[in-house]
Amino acid sequence: MVMHLNMLGFAIPLFVGFMLLEYWIAKSRKLNYFNLHRSIANVSIGIAERLCDVFVAGAFYYIYDKLQRNYGLFNIQPSVALWILLFLLTDFIWYWYHRLGHEVNLLWMAHIVHHQSEDFNYTASARITVLQALARTCFWAVLPLLGFPAGMITSLLLVHGLYPFFIHTQLVGKLGVLEYLLVTPSHHRVHHASNEEYLDKNYGDVLIVWDKLFGTFKKEDANVEIQFGLTKQLKTYSFLWQHFHYGIELFLTIKKEKGIINKLRILFGKPERVDPAFRNKAETIFNIKQNPETIEEPLNKYVIWQIVALLVSLFVFLLVEHNFRIPVKISFAFITVLTLINCGAIMEQKRWIFLVEFLRFIAISFLSFYSLSFWQEKMLVIFLLLIVLLTFYSPLKKSYLLYVYKRSYGFN
Prior knowledge:
3 domains; about 400 residues
């Protein structure tokens, strides 16, 4: 059997390598730019986004191809001039997608995850959700309607998507004449700031000229200490809560409004129309709170090794994903998501993580036996193990929590 490799899988060791390099440089300069648990939360979201690409990337190409073939205004053929035009259009559309992502609640719900990190480093660039990817696709659908072929669009988007990674850093200062043309780390630090004077500025992705043209440019002031993250910071490392908290806050706000017109005004209005008090209400409903106790080193190691194992397995999985059947892909995705939920819950010392571990064991067992011949017979082994686990569920749970949390047994 011929093994087809997906070269995009090498993006994982490439980006992780730059993250480690940035961490080493910052540490050698005694710069406190990294927080372990925030970095894990950032990388966790990036892992989920890379995994989602397995299921949706092909669909994006198919949509672009269909739109161009059936509805394209022109039948554009690649040339140097048209590649340049495509780059300019892509960056221009990105500016407006990004700006509206901050000004429209429905789009901010997808984009807010990218701004939750209180650290600003390469790990923060990983905070991209599948909802954000879907929103981008809707905006970039203008390109095939103009007549650009799907191959050109997806190729440029791959290259275009590399640049933003490198502007999420505090190690690089101002870049002289490049500050007038490109989005630099200095410009992007302003964009990620929660300081009032820096809010809603510098939306550009590669070119800063759009911000200067449309009045949203702001220069970084060396005398202003930047505070990164949201204006109202999250109180949790929860993988799920980081993705869905704003949707819940938005729902509670809309629910309070009377009449469909007022509800739509909230949905398509600015984030400032969502009452901050609903964050507290949502956190109370779902018992969201960050454990104030320092997480001990053994617990850190347990989480770190899970993330390392995920990165390695995801790299291998992406390389050979074309050779896997759908049940294997779904099982791997399920195990990955459970592990990410598990890591966030451990950092907050939640007692329900044993249930997540229980489900993960079942999924791993299924995936392992499915890959073997005569796997149906092997399912009997899984069934017997489940009987044992269910029989001794309570004592196993107690032993597991004591082992994982050790002295930090005051979990939520």
